[in-house]
Design brief:
31% of the residues lie in helices and 24% in strands. The protein is of the alpha/beta class and 406 residues long. The radius of gyration is 23 Å and the shape is globular. It binds ligand LLP. Ligand LLP binds next to helix 10 and helix 11.
Amino acid sequence: MISADHNKLLATIANSVGTPCYVYSADAILAAWHAYDTAFGDLPHLVCYAVKANSNLSLLKLLADAGAGFDIVSGGELFRVLRAGGDPKKIVFSGVGKTEAEIELALQSGIGAFNCESEGELAVINAVAGRLGLTADFSLRVNPDVNADTHPYISTGLRDHKFGIDISDAPAVYARSRAFRNLRAAGVSCHIGSQILDYSPILEAADKVLTLIEHLKADGHAIRHIDLGGGLGIAYKEGDASPSIATFIADLRERVERAGLTITIEPGRSIVGNAGELLTRVLYLKQSPSKHFVVIDAAMNDLIRPALYKAHHNIRPLKATGGSILADVVGPVCETGDFLARDRELPDVQPGDLLAVESAGAYGFVQASNYNSRPRPVEVLVEGNTWRVVRKRETWEDLIRGEELI
Ligand code: LLP
């Protein structure tokens, strides 16, 4: 339940820094991170926050200070984590298309491990490590052919997805990797998708990976860790049965404890998703013969999830109003796909009213663009009763930075 005080604070922030504006709660982020960390108990573990969900430097710093590791997928994310004071040894580097330059930067920075997605990538890491006189720990990301039952764009664990190496090919790939002098097979990783509400497919994947690890150990590989990716879903609307972090981890722990491995997980959304909201102001009310429209000052460039995945985000006015309307909530971008909600029952709102778009902490700002030459929103972090801007609103000058006038 959202308190009146919370809404008042959000209104104060919006009136002070303008809208659209992302607001994050430090307390909520840390609570979710600690829920993961404590649920593992004394099982050796590393909770690597998936930076792609929200890469604001202050959020990374908050998590780094709490002892988090980080799951990165680019040189840019590595740069951010190091700038925020993250411990390089606690970084895992995932992704299908790491460039040689990114691999070199990662090796020079002393990251913990690479999650490798192809034999070609193993060869490049081996070559770069050789050149630098280093040995690199790697896990193969295996594709367990498990259906994560989520939106097709964010499901990753099926045989025809671009991710990982088919689990049945993995023993042969590990065997061939022995030829790479500067690599050490240290683990096995997998990640089957995102926004997973029923986590039984993750357990099924874990079982398959544990069986593979037994075979690999029997083949003489010194496998020490298992990385089970991220993916735990959050409640976006009433009725979403979002899994408890504690129960999920207890189920994983039970499986991994017996195997004597260190476990890594890479949660993103479940740490920051419900810790962030996008504040926006109503510009106009408009009516077509068949529909009501609430035109707001946030758009698909600020939060693309509804347009891209038909994602649902609750929208609530910051001030209680009477009555209700059924409306599309749309932004100023010149596309029919520019909506944050469709056919949504909303309390009556008026031009000038402030709205909070909920559950926007993950994959919100990070997927924002400058489409229609709209500056990206300001970001604010709330800690207890205080708040501060952690990223300024972009200016029009920011929009043309780097461009040349011929
Ligand atoms: N590890 C790997 C290798 C991943 O690819 C991902 C997410 C994660 C961890 C973190 O997953 P999470 O715990 O956040 O579910 N833009 C989409 C989500 C894409 C997720 C991509 N990979 C959205 O807005 O729903």
